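Q: Second attempt. The first request was missing the SMILES, so the protein and NAP are both included now.
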Amino acid sequence: MKLEAHAMKLGLIGCGKMGKALTIGAIDAGAVSPADVVAYDIHPAALDSLLKDRSVSAAESIAEVATSVDVLFLAVKPHDTPAALHQIRDSGSTAESLLVISVAAGLTVEKLEREVAEGARIIRSMPNTPALVGQGAAAFTLGQTATENDGATARSLLGSVGVAVEVKESLMDAVTGLSGSGPAYVYLFIEALADGAVQNGLPRDQARELAVQTVLGAATMVRATGEHPAVLKDMVTSPGGTTIAALEALEAHAFRAACIEAVNTATARAREMGQE
Ligand SMILES: NC(=O)c1ccc[n+]([C@@H]2O[C@H](COP(=O)([O-])OP(=O)(O)OC[C@H]3O[C@@H](n4cnc5c(N)ncnc54)[C@H](OP(=O)(O)O)[C@@H]3O)[C@@H](O)[C@H]2O)c1
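A: Got both inputs this time. The predicted holo structure:
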């Protein structure tokens, strides 16, 4: 007799931008069925689109979510997270029955674990905003009692809206400096590329469209070919041509050093904020 696979029940606490993006991503990727999703927000209206478009169930409280699911995304703001964890702790859910995946920026596993019952299974994750369009880059780290299986669950859920990698907790600040803050660096790059083209006469809307597609296309080339970016760069750099002239200008203005310093500075700031 074939045993039915146990369908995972997924909870969402905090139905804001990130929580909804992750939950809808998981549903649309088939990682969970909408009938097995229970969501709660202090503002019931925040659930409207989830209820209407994906037919998930609405809960009346954090405790109701915590006691009826196997895994939950805790997606309230960092300053609301400790109080929500206390309600999970007091709900009667057990470490055996529940895995909590926090998406709160800057809250360490140690801080999260301090707020829940001893032995609770916690995962800290750091998604980024492109998760809202299914192109996120997330990292996660396991709490003390989270299992390898829990890691696989986090990878599958976070990976349903992009890429998800497991890292050591000590590297989460570097993740924040790279993929957490990184979309802003790329927006600046796209804007600057378009500005350069506008300066040379291209209409703004065409400049923007070409700049966006250039970044998207180059990123897709790196992903699709698996080549080192330097190899792809060499392939489009002909002797005495335009590209080598532009690369020289980028080097003269310390483009690489600026990028490295941006990640360093954001990482240092994340570290500092984690200690506040
Ligand atoms: N957006 C991002 O790019 C991003 C990236 C990485 C990580 N994150 C993390 O994701 C989390 C959520 O961010 P967001 O931008 O999605 O926030 P958001 O849009 O403010 O959504 C959070 C929702 O949860 C509600 N809420 C507050 N306390 C609650 C409680 N005790 N129980 C249930 N719901 C509660 C909020 O209501 P109120 O509005 O009244 O507070 C709001 O509707 C944050 O911890 C953030 O650090 C976000």
